[in-house]
Amino acid sequence: MPSLSFDIAHLLAGSMLVLSFVLLYQDRITAVLNVFALQAIALALSVAWQAIAQDAPHLLVTAVVALVVKGFIVPTALHRIVRRLKIHREIEQVIGGGPTMLTGLGLVALSILLVEPVKEGVNVLTREDLAFALAVILLGLLMMITRRNAVTQIVGFMSLENGLVLAATGAKGMPLVVEFSVAFSILIAFIVFGVFIFRIRERFDTVDVGALDRFRGERRDSQ
Amino acid sequence: MALMRDLGLQFVQMFLVVTIAPLVLGVTRKVKARLLRRVGPQLLQPYRDLWKLMHKEAVIATNASWLYRVAPYTIFAVTWVAAALVPTYATGLLFSWSADLIAIVALLGTARFTLALAGLDVGTAFGGIGSSREMMIASLAEPAMLLIVFTVALVAGTTQLSTIADIFISAPPGLRVSLGLALFALMFVGIAENARIPIDNPATHLELTMVHEAMVLEYSGRHLAMIEAAAALKLVLYFSLIACLFLPYGMATIDKGEAALVVGIVSYLAKILVLAVLLPIGEMSVAKMRVFRYPAFLGGAFAAAALAVFLLFVSRGF
Fold first, then answer.
1. Which of B177, B314, B317 is closest, CB to CB, to A11?
2. Domain limits for position A135
3. How far apart are CA A135 and CA A132, in angstroms?
4. Per-residue confidence band for A44, with pLDDT thresholds at 50, 70 and 90
5. A220 in a structural domain
6. B206-263 pLDDT tens trace
7. Integer Cα distance of B13 and B263 in angstroms
8. Are B296 and A98 in contact (CB < 8 Å)?
């Protein structure tokens, strides 16, 4: 009979995975951003719970960083960008919703199978967190592949990073310096992305990355 | 004597579900009407409708085969058996050994198959389109339903409903993401199977959107009464299933004294009432979907159920 602390960790990490699927499924841009914020909050709760369960107070700092940066700053900024680009009402054409979901399920199965052989010297919780984190990372990658809008691709990247943090906290904590540098590199990546989006927009009048393919001379037929 | 008592308890369950079925339908209609600021029909109106239909002449198309006449009774009988098997107020009744989740899914599948055949039988365009849509929905909903069954079976170690309820009462499984996902998926599947709003609207006869109503369009009189009663029973069945799997508290288990039985029946009725109020609220807050979006809706249920199974594999740690 697993203990309550295990159950809560399982619940929070599991809800992150579920939210990854919602991200994959959702095709309205504002809803995608809201779900992303929700996932960051779930990550913060999960990390905070690990801090209590592992008795590692420095993880609380990680939780606060995740909550403030990814739960509030990044989604608010993305909302702004989306509104300035006037695409906040847009419904994105997700490439093959059904096959994407099936691929996502396959990726989850793959990550579980990959982590399953790790048995010695690892408690169940760590292994489970690793499996969840790997799945969230792979789903983030899948989201970056299947989306054609630059903004939702960024969301895919950020949710991938959520998975990284989950993996790091599950495994007996990581140094605070690393955590801070990761958080800052994410912020900087975010700023670069922001500038990049506006450049794409200026150049091609759209943030659909399909336009880039056409510009390079690929896929002439599809557009 | 003990056998007679056990048999009696089983009969109480059988007649309980069939008695409250129209009332449950009445409650959902009333709540829905009140949410739309209409007065709505009286709670007992579905009983009167059934009574009226029973006494009306049954008009049968000239080219209808025997199947058309047999189908309503088959559908009602099969649905009643399925609904009577789901534990409602007590576990471990006389026929509980046969109350297997997979058997119940199969019984509902039989009812759906018969209804679709009956829709095709007379050869009208509406019946055909209704049957084809119903089969499309079924082909999407059934895999999800089976995955839900697997999830619950993995947690409890059996597919027998009565035993599952016993296990969940005596040893609560705690916070499980898998069970939450399974509940979510079961609600989606239940909405699709009972032709409720995002999928189908039970109150409309608009030809573009109807599924269930299109199949039964040719029926009248006592045949229609049977089909409507079966539809009401199916709703009660899904409510009972949700109550039995996810809120089994209050059921009479080993102790079947009068007090335990009364507690069981009252708590069962309360659970059904809550669900019957929640359903129309949920229905009112979403818009009806296009037919082409059904795969996305039920695909969501399938993904949730599949995820529930996967998560169980991680947490069991083998």
1. B177
2. 4-90+97-215
3. 5
4. very high
5. no
6. 767 778 888 888 899 999 999 999 999 999 999 999 999 988 888 887 777 888 889 9
7. 14
8. yes
**Count of domains observed in chain A:** 1
* Total domains in the fold of chain B: 1
Higher pLDDT, B315 or B235: B235
Q: How far is CA B93 from CA B6, B12, B86, B277, in A?
A: 7, 11, 10, 28
> Does A128 contact B315 at a Cβ distance shorter than 8 Å?
yes
Residues of B in contact with A10 (CB under 8 A): 175-177, 311, 315
User: Can you tell me the mean pLDDT for A76-90?
Assistant: 81
Q: What is the C-alpha to C-alpha distance for residues B152 and B142, in angstroms, rounded to an integer? A: 15
Interchain pair B296, A108: CB under 8 A: no
Q: Do A109 and B310 touch (CB under 8 A)?
A: yes
pLDDT band per the 50, 70, 90 thresholds, residue A96? low
Q: Are B306 and A112 in contact (CB under 8 A)?
A: no
In this complex, do A124 and B317 lie within 8 Å of one another by their Cβ atoms? Answer: yes
Residue A155, amino acid: V
Structure tokens at B99: 């109350």
Instruction: List Cα–Cα distances, B119 to B115, B133, B178, B222, in angstroms.
Output: 6, 11, 37, 16
Q: Is residue A145 part of a domain?
A: yes
Q: What are B23-63's pLDDT values in tens digits? A: 999 999 999 999 999 998 999 999 999 999 999 999 998 88
Q: Which domain holds residue B108?
A: 2-316
Which A residues in the span 148-177 are in contact with B, Cβ-Cβ below 8 Å?
none
User: What's the one-letter identity of residue B228?
Assistant: E
User: CA B206, B209, B213, B217: dihedral to nearest 10 degrees?
Assistant: 60
Instruction: Flag whether pLDDT at A219 surpasses 60.
Output: no
